[in-house]
Design goal:
It is built from 11 helices and 12 strands. The protein is α/β, with parallel strands linked by helices and about 375 residues long. It has 2 domains: about 5-55, DNA polymerase, domain 1 (Orthogonal Bundle), CATH 1.10.150; about 65-365, Aldolase class I (TIM Barrel, Alpha-Beta Barrel), CATH 3.20.20. The protein has a 10-stranded mixed sheet. Strand 1 (about 65-70) and strand 2 (about 75-80) form a beta hairpin.
Length: about 375
């Protein structure tokens, strides 16, 4: 069993069944999430007999690193993990901040201490992690969706991606600053495991990662948006919208057959009313498809009165989709049109394009 699949009460119960005192569970918990141990041998405060039993009963490494790639600009690293059943998932580390920061070294040991340089004010270390092996949503511009669904990840497999990079960062006195659940998979399709993973990362007795530094992206599964709203979590919500009417959306996102844009926006209004938190709408700018001022004006009209923000990014290329990215001039005009109508908009920076680490690109050549 993967030890990261247990929450603290479950771990405490297991230790009690083994005849161990309750404080041992907290020692193990803090070893895993505070000290970032990934082997029973590192728990030197525990008796040898307990360390041996942990090794016998639990798995501490849920995947092996099959390969990793660094972007040519040196600020993005994509890691391909192989799970015990042979399925492959990908996670990405993105560096933002002072442009004078050292770039990543040439591909080599993922533990190379030069990977991140020194801590600097305002620097962000953002992780994009996967929640499923493959994806069932079938968005035509997404490399993961083009390959179909394999299986859900367990909560522990989701957490382990964060801990992998957290150990790397810790080695150079850095830490994870943001986590986005925008890698392989639809998070709301794996709702219970995703929320359990978030709770584990957020636990104050362990990793203690603030919920407001986590962003969850969904294609718009309406019942789950409403459930998420009722739980009043502080996790940021992002909706992959990409079209202003249902027919256009259906052409690129099969989920539009089930959930219409009006239903999604109604769920978003419910979410903002329940939580007081804004919604981010993600918009992949596809040249000649959804990047015109006319489309922006229609989008602004549909979002009017909703506490929201639009994150637009020129389309990232994938082999299975012929659409092209909009150019910078058209992107800026799209942004200007939205802002003139009162809808805040940001043109996002594309990262890791040359290693297929950008949004919608997570399916490396090994997966082909």
């Amino acid at each position: 069993m993967l030890i990261y699949d247990l929450d603290l009460p479950a771990l405490t119960k297991t230790l009690a069944e083994w005849g161990e005192p309750a404080y041992r569970a907290k020692q193990i918990w803090q070893g895993l999430y505070l000290h970032l141990y990934d082997s029973p041998s590192q728990f030197t405060s525990l008796p040898v007999s307990l360390r041996n039993r942990l090794a016998e009963e639990f798995t501490f490494n849920p995947f092996t690193v099959k390969t990793f790639l660094d972007s040519s600009d040196g600020f993005t690293r994509k890691t391909l993990f192989q799970l015990p059943d042979g399925h492959l998932i990908e996670a990405v580390l993105m560096r933002y901040g002072d442009p004078a920061d050292e770039p990543l070294p040439p591909s080599g040991s993922p533990q190379n201490p030069r990977i991140l340089g020194e801590r600097k004010r305002g620097v962000r270390r953002t992780l994009c992690i996967s929640t499923q092996a493959g994806c069932a949503m079938g968005c035509v511009f997404c490399a993961t969706g083009q390959r179909g669904f394999k299986r859900h990840l367990t909560s522990g497999e989701i957490v382990a991606q964060v801990l992998y990079y957290a150990r790397m960062l810790k080695a150079v006195n850095e830490s994870v600053t943001n986590v986005v659940l925008m890698g392989m998979g639809e998070p709301f399709h794996n709702y219970d495991n995703v929320m359990a993973a978030i709770d584990r990362l957020n636990d104050r007795e362990g990793f203690n990662f603030g919920a407001r530094r986590i962003t969850l992206s969904t294609v718009g599964l309406v019942p789950q948006i409403r459930r998420f709203a009722d739980e009043k979590r502080q996790v940021n919500l992002a909706i992959s919208l990409h079209a202003v009417d249902d027919d256009e959306r259906l052409a690129i996102m099969p989920v539009a057959k089930r959930y219409k844009i009006d239903e999604i926006l109604d769920a978003c209004r419910y979410y903002t009313a329940q939580t007081g938190r804004r919604v981010t709408f993600e918009w992949a700018l596809i040249s000649g498809v959804n990047d015109t001022p006319e489309v922006a004006a229609k989008l602004a009209q549909r979002l009017k009165g909703l506490l929201c923000h639009v994150n637009a990014i020129p389309l990232n290329p994938t082999a299975g989709y012929s659409g092209k990215a909009t150019d910078r001039q058209r992107a800026e005009l799209f942004k200007k049109t939205l802002e003139q109508a009162g809808i805040p908009c940001t043109i996002r920076m594309r990262r890791g394009i040359d290693i297929q680490a950008g949004c919608g690109q997570l399916a490396g050549s090994v997966l082909a």
